[in-house]
Design a protein that fits this description.
Largest interface: A-B, 94 and 98 residues
Number of strands of chain B: 19
Structural class of chain A: alpha+beta
Number of domains of chain B: 4
Helix content of chain A: 25-40%
Distance between the termini of chain B: 41 Å
Shape of chain B: elongated
Number of helices of chain B: 22
CATH class of the largest domain in chain B: Alpha Beta
Oligomer: heterodimer
CATH architecture of the largest domain in chain A: 2-Layer Sandwich
Strand content of chain B: 15-25%
Radius of gyration of chain A: 33 Å
Structural class of chain B: alpha+beta
CATH architecture of the largest domain in chain B: 2-Layer Sandwich
Largest sheet of chain B: 7 strands, mixed
């Protein structure tokens, strides 16, 4: 989750009444902000990805001013119609079709505001921007370029000095050589031309979504900004721009619209006027379990910086544009809950009666555990994902690992196990210094692939046990297995000699129950023991119990 | 009754009986002797004496004794005679011999000088000069010496100084002035004697013949009647044994299941491998959401459903694209079936929950599940690639957010957690969404646990579920770690036998 650093002395200038640091810390969680770290003069809070407007202290101050009753209702954003134009060339439409822009005048940045703006830009790129693929934002010094601006497709050989470089580079070189090019180049690499924004004289503002031009670099001295937001999704670029615009407005900038001239349409951006959402009093009360009047609901929403008004018998909320998370009326319901104060809710319990119970199959698996525990075995619980190496070691290189996962971060966990023996041998290997005898079992589901339909994966309940001590042998394993089958399933097995890659020839048998082969019993091969650095004989059994469980459940 | 009297009324332990018998009729006896007479080891005797002492049946004195033995020179002298005796022998019956001749008889000049000195001191010899020659004259004295008797005695058996006859003590003292002949070590010795009460405590009962075990034959023949089982040292530690045991994770899962069932929830179970549809799409998680990246989610290599024609596809797709008939704006993108067909290892049990909702379309229900979920993460003390998730839902016409808080509070109460608070949070598939924070007494701090919320209409309506669905869930390992005081999650899955064997069930 994204994190924002709040410096109390800066935040306090944004709050409309005095609060102590303790009071601020107390209140933040009730906005949905998780205290991550507290230090001298600052806190770091995690904000939820649905609230990119909380990516700056300005946004958080807006929320606190509302929740604590210092200010109420939808903030007003004044924006004047500006004359700046961006002309979108047809050539860029197949590459990165959407662009919205903004001009801001009269800024007086301090270092903290610039830091906030940049960290907001990064958060928007990561979240709403889907790592710049969907949305990317360029921030420019307006005073060094001349409108109208052109959004075009340029050849890879086009040269300009990118941000951080004094010498011109071709766009192809930028992708190869700059940090940003290496990280985000994959977004445009497949294109034969790349998106580019230039001014009236061909000076470069931006190579979206990769890097800005050096020319429009922003500093604390910058007074007037030009913002471009490009991307693949009109709603997303608009959302990102509104959030940036709200921040710049609240830091003292004067917003001006920019006219974006597409080949067949023209659009004045950004749209800063609130949008309306209906609020149904009954829905609010039904979901929250409260009995609020329309006025109370309006008051709660006001605390969440949403102005609502009665219109006839219903309520209409006027939601600020930066609330890009408001998709459905239930989102308004949550705002009412937050405005009401989560700490003010008292818990109730549903009135309806219901009988609880266990899953029948899992209940039978518990029974298997009980019998084996009664026989003196210790239960192991292992991870489902194991290494190919463990499978190879168990089977003398003959086992195959079919169900692999893509791009695992650890080689220890790359294959869904199709049987329990490798995991149990690993348990013995990890415990060679513990007292013997060691008898360990595991009961859980393993994963088997249907050879005809590879996407059909059976999750088969299986039980396996290993016995390790100086006299461990076939007979002991078979005794325990027979006791288990008798006590847990009231059945018995027949065993017939059958080779197994993990078991000693002549001490290896298949386990059949009602004529179906369900597993094996035997003594582990010395070669396999050596692979696991075990110096004690080991006997084992392993049986699929899915069929036994189904038979029992079917019978009842 | 004083503690001593109470002891006296208890029957004597076999060892006590034997030791007391050995002491009867003796005065102060050393522990060594007492043990030998009683036929027990010195260790047993030492312990037994302590018991007897506490019962007032024996008196113990600890004394310092001087253990004496021969040192190197003494051992040599015991074999070859004292140096001064060997000097006399060198006279071979003559009355006077030159000192040079005598000197040649000794290899070691120091020994010779010592022999000369000793013999002179005892007045066995005199030294005089005859012209330029020095001669040694033999006197009438010298012969059997007390020193030799002592050497003989000590060579035969080391002893204590106070065990020597009075006359020999002086000899020993003299000899100990000469270096290297005898050594003396101070040892603490214990003597023990029976008190007058001992006799009545023994009670004059005849001791039966003792056996180690009563055999089946003795039971059958009745011969056990004349026998007495040898008393055991009941205080001695017995060998450790370990029971068969369920794994702590399973024990905790059982506890959680019991709590859910007792709150009226029915258990459901679903597969771990799911098409992305049930894990993500049906939960209104957009297809380009970062949670669906390979960096976070395990996809099965190259595996997609060949055919996937679930009846809910169209409604779910339109909910994503523009809200469909759910009253939502939707996410505003083009939904792709191909993406929904990829097979994933479920990232939450909510995949099973939502499938249950689609299959049964309940208007009222309370169900729960405890199951494995998977995340493609680096393994650290905090994270594993898979963990157990617990999840409960309640469906009903009139269930509310407050009910949700109440159900979760009850659940926590039964786990022994009393203080719970709630904060707003965000999940893509619930609205409103809350985070629960509980006060963990042992750690003396608040800990974030289960998340919860009401399923979004974009989730429930496409599946044909009209009533609100309350849902809560969270990781199980976190709770187990708090319970067991573990701070590395890898320890939970390490299956260390020592830990599994020794961790008591009552934690």
């Amino acid at each position: 989750m994204p994190v924002v650093t709040l410096y109390f002395n800066h935040l306090k200038t944004l709050l409309e009444k005095n609060l102590t640091e303790e009071q601020i810390k107390e209140a933040l969680p009730y906005l949905g902000l998780d205290l991550e770290e507290a230090g001298e003069g600052f806190v770091r809070v995690e904000y939820n990805p649905n609230r990119p407007d909380y990516s700056t202290d300005v946004g958080i101050a807006r929320g606190l001013n509302g929740l604590l009753g210092f200010n109420s209702g939808t903030p007003k954003y004044s924006i004047i119609m500006g004359g700046t134009r961006v002309i979108v060339d047809q050539s860029v439409i197949p590459l990165r079709p959407q662009i919205v822009c903004l001009k801001v005048r009269g800024l007086h940045f301090d270092d903290e505001s610039i830091r906030q703006l940049i960290s907001m830009q990064e958060d928007l790129h990561a979240g709403i921007g889907r790592k710049r693929r969907r949305v990317s934002i360029g921030i420019h010094n307006f005073d060094v370029v001349d409108p109208p601006f052109h959004y075009v497709a340029a050849p890879p050989s086009f040269r300009f000095p990118p941000l951080g470089y004094t010498e011109p580079m071709t766009m192809a070189e930028i992708l190869e050589k700059t940090e940003q090019g290496k990280t985000y180049g994959h977004i445009v690499k497949e294109f034969s031309n790349y998106p580019l924004i230039t001014d009236a004289n061909g000076k470069v503002l931006s190579f979206p979504p990769i890097i800005n031009g050096e020319r429009t670099r922003v500093s604390a001295a910058t007074k007037n900004l030009f913002i471009d937001v490009t991307g693949t999704d009109l709603r997303a670029v608009g959302d990102a721009l509104t959030i940036v615009a709200s921040f710049l407005h609240d830091t003292g900038g004067k917003l001006e619209t920019v006219s974006v001239d597409y080949p067949h349409a023209s659009l004045a951006t950004p749209n800063m006027s609130p949008f309306e959402m209906p609020v149904n009093v009954e829905t609010v009360n039904r979901l929250l379990g409260l009995d609020l009047s329309s006025d109370e609901i309006i008051q709660c929403l006001g605390k969440c910086r949403i102005t609502a008004m009665k219109r006839g018998n219903s309520i209409v909320a006027s939601v600020p544009r930066y609330r890009t998370d408001m998709l459905h009326q239930v989102d308004i319901v949550e705002e009412v809950a937050i405005g009401y104060g989560i700490q003010n809710f008292t818990a109730t319990t549903p009135s309806s009666y219901s009988a609880g119970g266990y899953d029948k199959g899992l209940k039978i698996m518990s029974r298997v555990e009980d019998v084996l525990v009664g026989l003196g075995l210790v239960e192991a619980v292992n991870l489902t994902l194991i290494s190919e190496e463990a499978i190879a070691k168990t089977s003398g290189g003959k086992g195959k690992a079919s169900l692999k996962v893509d791009d695992p971060k650890s080689m220890e966990h790359e294959v869904l196990r199709d049987n329990l023996l490798p995991s149990l041998l690993m348990v013995l290997a990890r415990n060679v210094h513990e007292e013997y005898p060691q008898r360990v079992f595991e009961v859980t589901k393993v994963f088997q692939q249907d050879p005809q339909h590879p996407y059909v994966i059976t999750e088969e309940p299986q039980v396996a046990a290993v016995m390790a001590h100086s006299e461990a042998n076939f007979t002991e394993a078979k005794s325990l297995l027979s006791a288990l089958l008798k006590q847990a399933f009231n059945t018995k097995c027949s065993t017939s000699s059958k080779p197994h890659p993990s078991l000693c020839p002549g001490r290896s048998a298949s386990v059949k129950i009602s004529n179906t082969t369900l597993g094996f019993v035997g003594e582990i091969r010395p070669e396999v023991l050596r692979e696991f650095q075990l110096r004690t004989p080991v006997a084992a059994f392993q049986v699929n119990i899915g069929k036994l469980i189904e038979d029992e459940l079917g019978r009842k | 009754m004083s503690p001593r009297e109470e002891y006296l009324h208890k029957p004597l332990h076999g060892l006590e009986r034997r030791l007391l018998k050995a002491l009867s009729g003796r005065g102060k006896t050393t522990l060594e002797v007492a043990a030998r007479k009683a036929g027990i080891t010195e260790d047993q005797a030492r312990r037994t004496v302590e018991w007897l002492k506490s019962k007032g049946l024996a008196k113990v004195e600890v004394t310092e004794r001087h253990h004496i033995s021969l040192a190197e020179e003494g051992l040599k002298a015991a074999k070859e005679g004292l140096p001064e005796k060997r000097l006399l022998k060198a006279f071979r019956g003559r009355k006077s011999v030159s000192i040079e001749e005598l000197r040649k008889r000794f290899k070691d000049q120091q020994e010779f000088n010592a022999a000369l000195g000793q013999a002179r001191a005892k007045e066995w010899i005199k030294i005089s000069s005859e012209g330029e020659k020095t001669v040694v004259l033999r006197s009438d004295k010298g012969g059997a010496s007390a020193s030799e008797a002592l050497l003989k005695r000590l060579k035969k058996k080391e002893t204590y100084y106070d065990d020597l006859p009075e006359g020999m003590k002086k000899t020993f003292d003299d000899l100990s002035k000469r270096s290297g002949f005898v050594s003396r070590k101070i040892v603490k010795a214990m003597t023990v004697a029976a008190t007058p009460e001992a006799k009545s405590a023994l009670g004059g009962v005849e001791e039966a013949k003792e056996v180690d075990v009563i055999t089946p034959e003795m039971l059958v023949s009745g011969s056990w009647k004349g026998l007495r089982l040898r008393p055991l040292d009941v205080d001695a530690p017995a060998p450790l044994v370990y029971p068969g045991k369920k794994h702590p994770i399973r024990l905790f899962i059982d506890e959680v299941r019991e709590i859910f069932a007792s709150l009226g929830f029915q258990e459901i179970e679903g597969p771990v491998v799911q098409p992305a549809f049930w894990n993500f799409d049906a939960l209104f998680i957009p297809q380009d959401h970062s949670a669906r990246d390979m960096q976070d989610t395990f996809y099965l290599s190259g595996l997609s459903m060949d055919r996937f024609d679930d009846q809910n596809i169209a409604a779910v797709a339109t909910a994503h694209e523009f809200g469909g008939s759910t009253g939502s704006k939707g996410w505003g993108y083009k939904w792709r079936l191909e993406e929904a067909k990829r097979l994933v290892l479920r990232t939450h049990t909510t995949a099973a929950t939502v499938k249950y909702l689609a299959d049964f379309k309940p208007s009222e229900a309370k169900v729960f599940s405890v199951g494995k979920v998977f995340r493609n993460e680096k393994v650290t003390f905090k994270n594993l690639v898979e963990f157990y998730q617990i999840e409960g839902i309640a469906v009903g016409n009139d269930v509310t957010l407050r009910d949700m808080m109440g159900l979760l509070s009850r659940f926590y109460q039964r786990l022994g957690i009393q203080k719970v608070k709630f904060w707003p949070t965000y999940f893509p598939y619930t609205e409103p969404s809350l985070q629960s924070v509980v006060y963990w007494e042992k750690l003396n701090r608040w800990v974030e646990l289960c998340g919860m919320g009401i399923f979004r209409p974009e989730v429930t309506l496409p599946l044909g579920v009209a009533n609100p669905v309350l849902a809560w869930g969270g990781g199980l390992e976190r709770l187990i770690m708090l319970r067991y005081g573990i701070d590395d999650v890898r320890q939970l899955y390490g299956n260390n036998l020592k830990w599994l064997r020794e961790t008591p069930l009552c934690l």
